[in-house]
Amino acid sequence: MLRHFPAVDVEIIHSKRDYIIIAFAFVVVALCFLIDSVAGHGLQLALGAAGWICLIALLYGESQYVRAQIFVAVTFATLGEHFASIYMAGYTYRLGNVPAFVPPGHGIVYLTAVVIGRCGFFQQHARKIVMSVIVVGGLWSILALIGWAGREDQIGALLFSIYLLFLFKGRSPMVYLGAFFITTWVEIIGTSIGTWNWAAIDPASTLTQGNPPSGVAAWYCLVDAVAMGCAVPLLNMLAKVLALLGIRSVVKEQV
């Protein structure tokens, strides 16, 4: 069941850049939400611009494949935001919109999940970390399901079950481990400050829903599946377009 996890005797490489990206993302997320707590639409636009600058800077040292994954993830997640928040009202942002910092924010969060999963510490201790995630996430789901925090969370238990399925059967379990940590941080900070609030009843399933749902990392497993499936076709299409335009590209060589 752990066939997609790193081998026990794998050579560990600790990249200083990876750890800097992780620390930066956790700090920037909290700072962004704190600023947004007093922001109007104008300041949200400024936060959005800053978010894109940060994302582009972080992608400077990444491969073409990771950049393509991020592009797909941002596109898919942004469409999902408008559907789930604006149309379905499964959760609602403070000003009733999808803030400008959300699209680049999804890129930073997804990149952080990738970086956490590949960093030396997680590669070295993958099996211990996955057991900790199962215990902590499972306990959170059970307590939320019985309304221990004052709000019953059936959706969270369902999502965590899906998350476990991805974790043990999916192609990139280390990314899913990383997603658990960064998305949990994002959701706890965001909901506690009031950046957004999840509806007590999920409008699609009519199941009860926590604020945030306990298994929310499962949504990023879906984002990753779409990103992995579309990244290579996207790079191949880009290479063909550039070839038709008579522009030499290094894209093909990196697919």
Throw out a few tags for this protein.
single chain, 255 residues, mainly alpha, two-stranded antiparallel sheet, 68% helix, globular
Q: What would you say about this model in short?
A:
The chain has 255 residues and is mainly alpha-helical. It is built from ten helices and two strands.
Tally of separate helices:
10
Q: Helix proportion of residues, in percent?
A: 55-70%
DSSP E strands, number: 2
Rg over C-alpha atoms, rounded to the nearest angstrom: 19 Å
What is the strand arrangement across the widest sheet? 1-2
- In round numbers, the mean pLDDT is 91
**Topology pattern, helix = H, strand = E:** HHHEHHHHHEHH
**How much β-strand is present in the residues?**
under 5%
Task: Report the structural category.
Answer: mainly alpha
Q: What's the arrangement of secondary structure elements?
A:
Elements lengths: L15 H21 L4 H19 L4 H24 L3 E3 L8 H17 L1 H5 L1 H20 L8 H16 L3 H21 L2 E3 L19 H27 L6 H4 L1
Antiparallel strand pairs: 1-2
